[in-house]
Amino acid sequence: xxxxxKSRMSNVVLFIFAISLIIVQCQDTKPKxxxxxxxxxxxxxxxxxxxxxxDDDIEEGDLxxxxxxxxxxxxxxxxxSKPEELLKMSKKGKTIMVFASVSGNPTEKETEEITSLxxxxxxxxxxxxxxxxxxxxxxxxxxxxxxxxxxxxxxxVAQERCEDVTVEGQVYPGKAAKGKDPKDAKKKTDKKAAxxxxxxxxxx
Length: 204
Fold this sequence. Notes:
By secondary structure, the chain is an alpha+beta fold. It is built from six helices and five strands. It has helices spanning 4-29, 42-55, 83-90, 108-124, 149-157, 182-203; strands at 96-102, 129-133, 138-143, 162-167, 170-173. Strands 2-3-1-4-5 form a five-stranded antiparallel sheet, covered by helices on one side. A hairpin with a 2-residue loop joins strand 4 and strand 5. The longest helix has 26 residues, at 4-29. It is elongated and about 115 Å long.
């Protein structure tokens, strides 16, 4: 039989062990001290943004373009003899850039004035379009809804000073390019490049 002193001692040890376990558990369940917002690093900010996005229901229209689901295409309405119709439907709601060239040898200022008139006309026809001049005779028209790109192209190629319009890699000759063969224009640019290369070799 165990002596009463030993059983008391074991009871005291068990009691101390139980109390220490309770204290440790209480310390673990205390809320951690929140970090000051001024001490947040990039990882903390990214975590915070993810939490906000999880809690927030974002509407389809507010999502960035690459996260939006594309609108369904009804192939029964597509005429197989008109591939542009399919392109129009597939580009609906997507940003597209249309490139336009001004005929002649305009300065950048002239290109700015001419393309500004084109943009104003399109704006008056209720097309939401932005314009950027990217060279002495070249401008980019950016549309938020790509399904209108071919209507914009039809307008631009009908302008007196429009040499050509490029939509989705396809080049359409403008009114100013009538009678010009696109191959001749390419040959001229190739000749100019060859002449420049020849002059540089002579200089060396």
